[in-house]
Predict the structure.
Amino acid sequence: MKEHQRVRRSVVAAMILATAASSSCAVPSGGGLGAAQTSASSAVTIIPLSNYGTDVAVRPDGARAYVPLQTGSILAVDLASKQVASTIETGGRPYAIALTRDGARGYVTDLSGQSLFALDTANATLTKTIALEAMEQPTRTPAVAVSRDGWWAYVTNAGNMDDHLAVVDAGANKPYGVHGLGGVHPVGVAVSPDGNRVFVAGCKLACVDGHLLVIDAASGNVTSSIHLTAAPVGLALSPDGSHAYTPTGLAGTVQVIDLASATMTSISVDAEPLGIDVDPRGTFVYVTCYGASEVAVIDARTNAVVATVSVANEPRSIAVSPDSKSLYVTHSSPILSVIDLQRAGVPAS
């Protein structure tokens, strides 16, 4: 068992960066928590945080970004003033976040896998800590997605021998069911636009390659499994639900899956792609390259890297603004980078 854990961790190191990063990392471009600063590139503005952020989500109105901190809180960042506006105390170890389509509610996983935090974003408060089924420890990088109608939240969790998808009734904020994943260690989850299918990316055993599971949302049954040539470390879905995108960490690629044909294309990017998001128009895919300190820009129409944007060290998660004009990037240091895509010379979507 110990050897199995060691192999998995060496192959999918990017999955475990959450526990390796130190909250004592210095803030680049000088200074502690205070006013936002513009980096050497006029395209990148740095917002100081009180600790490093494990994920980021932007409200559909573009007014706020929400950043979970493993110290037990979620920061609400005002994107007009580029300052932290409020702090939502949750306790536990907040990790991944997803917002409802209207932005009124948020759901945040706990790194222990024991809870899901339900947020009222309008009032910047914790609505409820939803207790999930007890998990075997340790768990790894639990992901969360919310259906477009806001009725269901889906939480992945991977323990040593217990990999599953938990379903939460988001209307009542209570657990609804748990489904096994057939030995696939999950790292990412997404829901189709119509809510009928749930997609889970992950890998088996030593994680030499990977799988994208297609799950029937009504029954929880796995209806198909698409083979991936490298182990994924995350998952994003195109707005129309036609394509899935998975960064592969140490393999240095982004895998593009055509969900209609179940075929895959691999795109080479720079070192350790980790965070991924697709712009609301579906034109570009943005990927943080943790080992290269940059964001790669992929044209979804051609599956080609068309630009890279240099950022501070160790970029982690990424979110695109609703107007497709800005990117928000967390790092393994207490900052949030804001990238002005026009200034960065990225083609308009």
Remarks:
- Residues 104 and 121 are 5 Å apart (CA to CA).
- The radius of gyration is 18 Å.
- The longest helix spans residues 2-11.
- Helices lie at 2-11, 17-20.
